[in-house]
Write the structure tokens for this entry.
Amino acid sequence: MRYYDEECMRVLLAVASGLLTLLGSTGIFVSLIIQRRVARLQDIMEEFMDLSAREDANLTSRLYSLLVKYQMHYLFPRQPRRVILIYADLTAGTAALIWLLALFPRLPTLFAPVFFLYLATFFFSLGVMAFFRFLLRNAVNPENSFLSPIVPPPSRLRSLSYLSRHVSISVKSLLVQARLRVAGREEEGVTRFLLKEEISLDDFIYHFTLYHGEKPLLTAFGHLLVEPGRDSLTGKPVPVLRNINVPLGQLPSPSVPRENLRGRLLVFCRGEKHPCQLSMGFLYSDGVFLPVETELEVNYTISYLVKGQSLHLLSGQEQIPFYSQHSHYFLFHGRRYYFVDGKVFASDDEVVVS
């Protein structure tokens, strides 16, 4: 009887070894798939960087298609991902059960030193399998920080702060490709000014001032953070939006002159020392203030530093109206405000896709 017990135990241990070998082969198979995906994503990233440096051509559609293609290769299908993890759990669980059966005959020697050696080996092996599952789960599920230093998630590719800080892409070039501009529109007795982008680049602090002559009529500031949500059909997160309108602030229409209006928009990103400045005039036509004579440049007379979530100006404070009163609002916290007639209002209107 003892011979048959030992023979059965050898068979069970051989089964456990075979299962773990298959699990290791599965890990190698998954790693090869991930390697090909990472190589493809890095190729798309290189194309993205090349396009952003070409300011002389309108490459907005190409830039948008690259972001969509990046997400298509980035996301791993949910069903195969679940099957792989279930297979890993079942294999590891079966092997652990067999090991427990192998330890069961040793229970009479519960307090013997050799039993503690077996027990320590058992728990160490469980820890190794748990770590293997952790690696496998993060490999097939890239929506985490495990692979983000190599292949950032698609949402990072629309973040100007991330791109300027970690990828060293010119913020000015990206803003040119996004066709950044400000326009005004009269509606129901008020004139609303909107920040318009053909591609929803976000994660930056902006400061917009509307002037009539030298007098500031409207000051808008805050942290632009766009949340595209998920596609209603596929359920996948939308990587980027097209033709967005970001409400900046509003004024009563009678108080807005229709001539000699000009504006200045400053864009502050993490990883930069000087803001990008968009200067423009406005032409009124049929209830709409259209931007004309726009000029986008880097303002080297203003320098700043980002500490944690706060933005601190090191020089050029005098160029930003009411900065001393509003400096505590310059935070990377996803909220927007505007200042009119000595009062600060929260700009709670959502981003609109036109």
